[in-house]
Predict the structure.
Amino acid sequence: QRQAMVKGQLLRERGRADGQNHDAFLTSLDLSCEVSRVTTLDSAGRIQELIVRTRQFNTTGRRYAIGEVEGMILSGECTVATMRAKDRFADYGIVGTCLASGDTILVFVISCRVIGLGLEEALLKAVVSRMRKATNDVVALFTPTDRNHPARRLFPSAGFEERTSGVWVLRHDRPLTPTPGHIAVTTLGFDVSPAL
């Protein structure tokens, strides 16, 4: 499976280099993703691995132990989400995760394999939609590191405002940026409002 993913990524990047404009390239991918709320421990190992190994699109750089991830999943009080992605070249498996507690997004991670495809917006939309059912404003933590420059625009581009250093807030009356039209999104365990 890993060999197929690597081959698919190489073919995708070759297509990006063919000279077509970026929007046409993204549309040509037939990109789809599945955002799931995690309620069992089946994917806990992959979630923890993704958080620990991802440096570029990781909003805090904090490393979570497997026990912490499992505890958040089993608590029922936290929102733990994963995102699977595939395009016409390959199925990339779980490429994104988000851990949230109460009104706060603790960490948000997207694999470098899919950076630049707009998938982060689909994951963020699903998580924020669920959180808004229990809280007014949504808070997100961001800690700059020497490697996470690609993640620095995630929250401001989605309408969050920096309240204090490293603490971003999406007010209850602010809509999220819509998911890009080139991505077919399926959600499992989330109620996603079209208004977001």
About this structure: The CA atoms of residues 56 and 147 lie 5 Å apart. The helical segments are 2-16, 22-28, 44-53, 66-75, 119-132, 154-157. The chain has a mean pLDDT of 89.
